[in-house]
C-alpha cells in the first residue's frame, strides 16, 4: 500500500513541476534567461528561425534520456519552455534588487496560456531531463515559443519599418479594417539597468525603458511607450514571420483532441453569456480562437464595436534577425506572426490523425521541416506553409469558428483581468473579429505562394564549408553575411556543415558542426573580438592543409566513400593581400593533396591581381563583395558566391587515398544516399581516382528501396551538372548520357580509358554524375529510419565504387600556371 501512496505523491510532484510555466511568476528553470547578462543579450543566442527551431528540437529528440513520441514531445515543449506574457517591470525606486527578478508573466497572453496548459493541453506527469539543452539553446527555444510584447523605448524607433525587403512582402491594409494610432508626448528615460538591458543587432544600441511607465497592467499593454514594440515568440520562415508557440500548441492539441466543458474552464463560476456553446474543442483556443477571443475581450472592453486583427512588422535585420518589431503599438492581440502561427497550427493539428496514420513514428522535427519546405509538403504537396491561405479556406468552418470563439471568449473572460466588462453584444463583437480576420488574411498577408516557392532551385546544398574569416571585418558587417551563408547551404543534421577558421593563421575559431544553433551560439561578438586581426595567407594555408589532411585521414579510418562537397571560402577585408612564392607553394600543395576541394575568395576590394594564381578557375573563384553594417541586400551581394558553392558537386572518392602516398585500388565499396522527390543531386569523380587505364574502375548506382517515382541517372565529361537531354539550353544532347533507374536495376559507368588523350591529371576532366527523383509523389513513408532520412518520403539509392585508384596531381598546378601565363601573354 505504501508504494502506491509514494507513487501517487511522486506523480503529483511531477505534475506540479510540469505546470510551473502556468504559474504567475517566471518558471524556475527559465529564470537564468532573465538574470544571466550573457543570456539576456540576444546577440549571444541563435537567431529565431525555423532552421534553428528544427535543429534544437532534433537535439531534444536525439537526447539519450528522451524517449517520447511526437504528441508528447509537443506537450513537453509547451510545459517546459513556453511561458507567454513575461514583461519587464521597472522598480519604482529606479534600482534593482538582487532578491527580486523584475520580470513576471503579466501581459494579456499569459491568461490564455495558463488555460491551455492547465485545462486544454495538460501534461501527463512527465518532464524533460534538466540537461536536455544547454542554457543558450534553452533560452533561445523559450523566446521562440513564448509570446509577449515589450513596449519599452529602445532609442531606434526612428528606424523602425525601414527594412525594404520585408515591406515588399506586404500590402497596405484593406479599407474598412481599423488601425488606430494614438500619439503620446515623449517622456524622460533613464539609463538601462542590468535587467532592463536588451540589445538589438547593433551592439552599441542599448534599449531604454521608461521609469514613469504606468504600473497598471492595462496601461502597459495599451499605452506602450515604443512606437514599434518588440513581439517575442516569433521565428523567421520564408513564408512570413510566424509565432512558433501557436504552431506547437496546434500540433499538441490536434494529436490528442479534447472537448472541455465551459464550466471547467470558468472555474465553476456562473457564465454571464447564456447563449454560447457550453463546450470548447482544444484545437481552437490553442490556435485561432485563442487570439480572436483576446482581441474581442480587450478591444471590446474599450468600447470598440469593430474588432481589429492583424499588425504587421519586420525583423531588425534582413539577415541578422534578433527581434521582430511591430509597426504599431495598438491592437496587438492578434498580430501577423500570431495569425500565421494560428493558421499553421490549426492546419497541422486538424490533420494530425491522418499524418500519424501515414507514419506513426514521425518526429516533430520532421513534421515542421516538411511543412516549412519549398516542395512536397506533409505527405501531400498542398500541406505546406506556402499554401496556408487556400488551406484555411478549405478546412475552416465559419460556424465552428464563431461558436468556438464565443465559447472561449466566455471562458477567458472569467480568467483574465480586463479594464471593463462586456455585458451584451458578445456575438456581434465575435462576428466583427472573424469578418476582419477573414478579410485581412485574404487581402493583406502577401506571403510567398507555392508557385514562387516551386520556381526556386531544385538542388539542395550538401557541402562542408570552411569559412576563413578576416577579423578586420566589423562584426555587425560580416555577421549577416555569414548568417546568410549558413542558412543558404542548409547547415543541419541532414545537410551541410560549417567550420570557421582565422585568416590570420588558419586556426579553428568554431569547430566543424552540422548544427546551426551550435554555430550561432559559438560565433558571437565576443568570439569575433577575440580573433587576431589581419591576413597571413602563407601561415593560414599551411595550417589549413594540415586540417584537411587530418580530415582525409578520418575519412580513410571511417571508410568514407562519398557525400558532401568541400569548399574553402576566404572572406577577406584587408587591403592589399600579400601573396608570395611561399604562399603559392602552400596553395599548390593543398590543391594536390585535396583534389576535391574548391577554394573561393570573397574580398571587399578587387584582389584579382593578388589572388588569381591560388585558385583553379581565376574567373569564377574570386569575387568582390560590398557589405554594409545594415545587412541589407546580403542575398544579392553574395549570390555569385553561393552559386559557386552550389556548383561544387558532391564527392565520390577512394577512401584509401590521402595523396601522401599511392594507396592503390579501393576495391569494392559503397555508400547510401537519399533524395527528395522533385530534386536533383550532383556528384563528381576526380581524375585522380581514374587517371590510369584500369579496365575495372567503375561507378555503379542502384535503387536501395522501392518507392513512388523514377530515379534518372545522367553523366557527362563536359557538363558539370548534367540533366536529362534537352533540359539544358544550348547543350549538345550527345554530351550527356541518361538512364532511368528501376527498382531492380543499376546504372554502371565504366571509367576505363577516361583520361585517354590527356597528358596530365589536371587536364583530364572529372566524371560528372547526377541523380534526379522525377516524381513528386510524397503520400507514403518509404524511408522510416529517422536516423538517416530527413523526410519519410526520401528515396534511397546506393553508390558503389570498384577499383578506383590514387594518382597525385603534382604536375597539374604547374601546367595550369604555365597555361594561365601564356593566356595572359596572348591577351596583351
3D architecture notes:
α21 (475-488) links the parallel β11 (463-469) and β12 (497-502). The strands form seven sheets. A six-stranded mixed β-sheet has the order 13-12-11-15-16-17, with helices on one face. It has a six-stranded mixed β-sheet with strand order 14-18-20-25-22-23, with no helix packed on it. It has three domains: 2-452, no CATH class; 463-648, von Willebrand factor, type A domain (Rossmann fold), CATH 3.40.50; 668-812, Jelly Rolls (Sandwich). The N and C termini lie far apart (98 Å). With 828 residues, it is of the alpha+beta class. The longest helix has 21 residues, at 537-557. Helices cover 35% and strands 15% of the residues.
Oligomer: single chain
- What is the radius of gyration computed over CA atoms, rounded to a whole number of angstroms? 29 Å
Total count of strands: 26
Shape: globular
End-to-end separation: 98 Å
Tally the helices: what do you get?
Answer: 29
Instruction: Tell me the structural class.
Output: alpha+beta
Low-pLDDT regions = 1-18, 163-224, 811-828
- Chain-averaged pLDDT: 84
- Biggest sheet: strands side by side, in what order? 13-12-11-15-16-17
Number of domains: 3
Report the β-strand fraction as a percent range. Answer: 5-15%
Fraction of residues in helix: 25-40%
Largest sheet: 6 strands, mixed
How would you briefly describe this protein structure?
With about 850 residues, the chain is α+β, with helices and mostly antiparallel strands. Helices cover about 35% and strands about 15% of the residues.
Amino acid at each position: 500500500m505504501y508504494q502506491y501512496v509514494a507513487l501517487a505523491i511522486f506523480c503529483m510532484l511531477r505534475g506540479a513541476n510540469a505546470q510551473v510555466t502556468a504559474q504567475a511568476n517566471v518558471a524556475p528553470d527559465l529564470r537564468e534567461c532573465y538574470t544571466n547578462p550573457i543570456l539576456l543579450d540576444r546577440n549571444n543566442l541563435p537567431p529565431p528561425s525555423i532552421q534553428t527551431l528544427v535543429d534544437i528540437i532534433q537535439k531534444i529528440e536525439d537526447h539519450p534520456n528522451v524517449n517520447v513520441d511526437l504528441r508528447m514531445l509537443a506537450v513537453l515543449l509547451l510545459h517546459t519552455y513556453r511561458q507567454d506574457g513575461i514583461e519587464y517591470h521597472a522598480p519604482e525606486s529606479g534600482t534593482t534588487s538582487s532578491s527580486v527578478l523584475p520580470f513576471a508573466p503579466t501581459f494579456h497572453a499569459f491568461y490564455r496560456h495558463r488555460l491551455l496548459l492547465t485545462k486544454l493541453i495538460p501534461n501527463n506527469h512527465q518532464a524533460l531531463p534538466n540537461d536536455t539543452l544547454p542554457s543558450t539553446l534553452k533560452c533561445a527555444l523559450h523566446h521562440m515559443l513564448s509570446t509577449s510584447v515589450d513596449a519599452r523605448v529602445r532609442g531606434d524607433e526612428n528606424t523602425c519599418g525601414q527594412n525594404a525587403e520585408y515591406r515588399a512582402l506586404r500590402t497596405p491594409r484593406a479599407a474598412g479594417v481599423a488601425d488606430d494610432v494614438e500619439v503620446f508626448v515623449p517622456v524622460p528615460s533613464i539609463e538601462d539597468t542590468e535587467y532592463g538591458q536588451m540589445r538589438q543587432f547593433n551592439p552599441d544600441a542599448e534599449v531604454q525603458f521608461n521609469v514613469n511607465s504606468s504600473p497598471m497592467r492595462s496601461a502597459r499593454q495599451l499605452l506602450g511607450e515604443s512606437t514599434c514594440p518588440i513581439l517575442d515568440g516569433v521565428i523567421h520562415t520564408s513564408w512570413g514571420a510566424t509565432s512558433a508557440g501557436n504552431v506547437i500548441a496546434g500540433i499538441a492539441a490536434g494529436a490528442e483532441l479534447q472537448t472541455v466543458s465551459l464550466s471547467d474552464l470558468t472555474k465553476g463560476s456562473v457564465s454571464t453569456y447564456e447563449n454560447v456553446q457550453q463546450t470548447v474543442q482544444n484545437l481552437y483556443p490553442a490556435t485561432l480562437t485563442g487570439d480572436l477571443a483576446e482581441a474581442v475581450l480587450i478591444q471590446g472592453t474599450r468600447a470598440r464595436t469593430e474588432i481589429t486583427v492583424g499588425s504587421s512588422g519586420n525583423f531588425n535585420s534582413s539577415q541578422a534577425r534578433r527581434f521582430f518589431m511591430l509597426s504599431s503599438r495598438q491592437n496587438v492581440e492578434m498580430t501577423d506572426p500570431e495569425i500565421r502561427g494560428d493558421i499553421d497550427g490549426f492546419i497541422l493539428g486538424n490533420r494530425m490523425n491522418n499524418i500519424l496514420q501515414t507514419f506513426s513514428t514521425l518526429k516533430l522535427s520532421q513534421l515542421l521541416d516538411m511543412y516549412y519546405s519549398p516542395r512536397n509538403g506533409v505527405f501531400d504537396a498542398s500541406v505546406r506553409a506556402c499554401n496556408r491561405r487556400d488551406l484555411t479556406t478549405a478546412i475552416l468552418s465559419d460556424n465552428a469558428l464563431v461558436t468556438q470563439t464565443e465559447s472561449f471568449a466566455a471562458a477567458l473572460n472569467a480568467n483574465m483581468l480586463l479594464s471593463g466588462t462586456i455585458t451584451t453584444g458578445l456575438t456581434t463583437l465575435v462576428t466583427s473579429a472573424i469578418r476582419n480576420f477573414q478579410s485581412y488574411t485574404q487581402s493583406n498577408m502577401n506571403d510567398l505562394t507555392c508557385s514562387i516557392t516551386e520556381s526556386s532551385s531544385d538542388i539542395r546544398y550538401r557541402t562542408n564549408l570552411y569559412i576563413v574569416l578576416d577579423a578586420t571585418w566589423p562584426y555587425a558587417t560580416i555577421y549577416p553575411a555569414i548568417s546568410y551563408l549558413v542558412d543558404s547551404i542548409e547547415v543541419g543534421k541532414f545537410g551541410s556543415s560549417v567550420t570557421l577558421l582565422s585568416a590570420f593563421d588558419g586556426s579553428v575559431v568554431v569547430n566543424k558542426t552540422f548544427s546551426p544553433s551550435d554555430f550561432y551560439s559559438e560565433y558571437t561578438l565576443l568570439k569575433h573580438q577575440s580573433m587576431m586581426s589581419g591576413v597571413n595567407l602563407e601561415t593560414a594555408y599551411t595550417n589549413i592543409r594540415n586540417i584537411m589532411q587530418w580530415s582525409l585521414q578520418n575519412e580513410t579510418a571511417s571508410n568514407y566513400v562519398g557525400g558532401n562537397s568541400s569548399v574553402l571560402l576566404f572572406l577577406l577585408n584587408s587591403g592589399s593581400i600579400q601573396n608570395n612564392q611561399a604562399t603559392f607553394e602552400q596553395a599548390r600543395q593543398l590543391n594536390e593533396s585535396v583534389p576535391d576541394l574548391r577554394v573561393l575568395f570573397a574580398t571587399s576590394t578587387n584582389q584579382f591581381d593578388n589572388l588569381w594564381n591560388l585558385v583553379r578557375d581565376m574567373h569564377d573563384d574570386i569575387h568582390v563583395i560590398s557589405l554594409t553594417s545594415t545587412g541589407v541586400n546580403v542575398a544579392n551581394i553574395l549570390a555569385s558566391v553561393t552559386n559557386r558553392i552550389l556548383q561544387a558537386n558532391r564527392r565520390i572518392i577512394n577512401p584509401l587515398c590521402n595523396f601522401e602516398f599511392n594507396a592503390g585500388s579501393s576495391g569494392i565499396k559503397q555508400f547510401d544516399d537519399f533524395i527528395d522527390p522533385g530534386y536533383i543531386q550532383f556528384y563528381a569523380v576526380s581524375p585522380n581516382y581514374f587517371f590510369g587505364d584500369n579496365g575495372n574502375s567503375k561507378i555503379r548506382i542502384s535503387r536501395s528501396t522501392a518507392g513512388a517515382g523514377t530515379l534518372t541517372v545522367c553523366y557527362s565529361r563536359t557538363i558539370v551538372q548534367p540533366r536529362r537531354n534537352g533540359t539544358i539550353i544550348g547543350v549538345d544532347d550527345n554530351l550527356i548520357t541518361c538512364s532511368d533507374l528501376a527498382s531492380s536495376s543499376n546504372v554502371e559507368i565504366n571509367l576505363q580509358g577516361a583520361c585517354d588523350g590527356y597528358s596530365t591529371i589536371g587536364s583530364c576532366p572529372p566524371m560528372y554524375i547526377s541523380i534526379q527523383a522525377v516524381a513528386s509523389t510524397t503520400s507514403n513513408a518509404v524511408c522510416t529510419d529517422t536516423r538517416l532520412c530527413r523526410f519519410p518520403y526520401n528515396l534511397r539509392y546506393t553508390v558503389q565504387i570498384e577499383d578506383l585508384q590514387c594518382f597525385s596531381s603534382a604536375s597539374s598546378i604547374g601546367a595550369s600556371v604555365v597555361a594561365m601565363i601564356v593566356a595572359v601573354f596572348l591577351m596583351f
